[in-house]
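Q: Could you fold this chain for me?
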Amino acid sequence: MQRQVIEYGGIPVGIAVPHNGRLRFIAVKFHVIDLDNQQFTSVGELKAAIRDHLNSQPAMAA
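A: Sure. Below is the predicted structure, expressed as structure tokens.
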């Protein structure tokens, strides 16, 4: 495993860093900060968590 930039909707939202056989998410965008420092077993699981998190949030005004 290597560090990997994580994008959502074509926008970088954080990085995944290997940690004890898992991936630790480091958020760099405010709208995913609630997931900061959480650990995931795969990039797919991390992206699903981001999608679920964002879909559970009320729409933000521009």
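A (continued): The first strand starts at residue 4 and ends at 8.
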